[in-house]
Amino acid sequence: MKSKTIRRWSAIHTWTSLICTVFLLMLALTGLPLIFHHEIDHLLGDAAELKEMPADTPRLNLQQLVQAAEKHRPGEVMQYFGFEDDEPNGAVAIMAPTAGTEPNSSHTFMLDARTGEAVEMPSANGGLMMVMLRLHVDMFAGLPGKLLLAFMGILFVLAIVSGTVLYLPFMRRLKFATVRRDKSTRLRWLDLHNLIGVVTLTWCLVVGVTGVISACADLLIAAWRNDSLSTMIAPYRDAPPLTQLAPATRLLEIASEVAPGMQADFIAFPGTRFSSEHHYAVFMKGSTHLTSHLLTPVLIDASTLQVTAVAERPWYMDAMGMSQPLHFGDYGGMPMKILWATLDVLTIIVLGSGVYLWVVRRRAQKPAFETAESPA
Amino acid sequence: MKPRKANFWKVFETPAIIALFTAAGLFSALLGDGVWDALSWLGLGIPAVLALRGLLQRR
User: Fold this and answer.
1) How confident is the model over A47-71, as a mean pLDDT?
2) For all residues of chain B together, what is the average pLDDT?
3) ipTM of the complex
4) Confidence class of residue A360 from pLDDT cuts 50, 70 and 90?
């Protein structure tokens, strides 16, 4: 590699990393507790705990659950019902003053599917972990915050790519994993920056790219609404608004009939951003490990309960679905979470050492003997 | 450009193998539980251990 080329790549590496470092540090620090949010919520008593009851206790039907939810929060309407694998006896209810209310102003709680009793989920509505989540997702700044973080994610990916290119001239004369401890603190951290950077490369790229995709979720959902949803519901464009909804009782059975072998992940009530003004949308997930992250919406007319359409999944909604586990690290048990946290801390060390190397390098003002090896 | 190419693989051989293990680890746990999970722990464990070894090693 010519020295001019090296200088160019090192300029890219320096500036892409410097700009995104503060944000990436914030993301890595807030992401750390989020890896264990499930465990932390339970520890803090912020998660919903349902009563022990005999396994064969009969369950209420969906419409009875809707009524229980409406009784629990009078004056509000149902937005979503969600179903969780680890709490088969509960249904997560999300309610708000209107169906179209934005997600951060909604109220989330759990309904015991056997008794209709409402159990609060404080972690879903506020508290420390919610602060972490909001900082991590949008820095309390809504869509502009998400897009800013997405841009920082792109810079992070560029920093990783340029860092990998620079790895070659740096390591040409060194054996893999060499850490020179006896020369200077700067050299030791340069070697560590290179070593940790190159071994965590793939993980950082995957978490970075899936983070960018997740940060663009609002745009992807809007695209899906314009794209597939609007053609499916075109016949309803001039239909008068619904004054009364048909009962939700059989929604899951109706959806299962047209999407055999799939399971319900959540139900979007009419008027939310995952449905139309005139439809219930039951989002069905595949039954294998891999396809359980891919959702197929079944649109059910909210006055006749006829199936309007089984929507096809555009590729970007699949990309969004697959991005979630790959970003959260929640799909391989506790050992994976611990590894995820370790790699997260290692990333913090790479970010920190990068800043350190830049500061030291600037202070040194390019002594001649160092120029070949310290563009960082 | 033979010497240059040799140089490239000399530097990137080990990192490339680690990258393959990491990628396999990230993917395998998506496919199932049990053995698939264990494979992912191996794949993600390799970079974590190598980085920690470099970090914690005394002279």
Assistant:
1) 92
2) 91
3) 0.93
4) very high
* Strands of the sheet with A107-112, listed across from one edge: A118-120, A107-112, A90-96, A77-82, A263-268, A279-285, A295-301, A307-310
Identify the closest residue of chain A to B33 by CA–CA distance. Answer: A332
Mutate to test the interface with A, among B44, B50, B57, B59 (most CBs of A within 10 A): B44
- Give the model's pLDDT for residue A37: 93
Q: For testing the chain B interface, which of A178, A184, A202 should be mutated: the one with the most B CBs within 10 Å? A: A202
Task: For residue A199, give its domain range.
Answer: 3-38+135-214+331-370
**What residue type is assigned to position A341 of the chain?**
A
Please tell me if residue A363 touches chain B, with a CB cutoff of 8 Å.
no
pLDDT digits (tens, 9 = 90+) for A133-165: 999 999 999 999 999 999 999 999 999 999 999
Q: Mark yes or no for CB contact B48/A346 under 8 Å.
A: yes
Within chain A, residue ranges assigned H as helices are 3-35, 37-43, 62-72, 122-125, 128-137, 142-171, 185-199, 201-215, 217-224, 230-232, 251-258, 315-328, 333-364
The C-alpha of B30 sits at a distance from chain A's nearest C-alpha, in angstroms, of: 5
Predicted TM-score (pTM) of the model is 0.91
* Domain that includes residue B39, residue range: 18-53
Mean pLDDT of the A112-134 span: 92
In a domain, A220, yes or no: no
For chain B, what is the domain count? 1
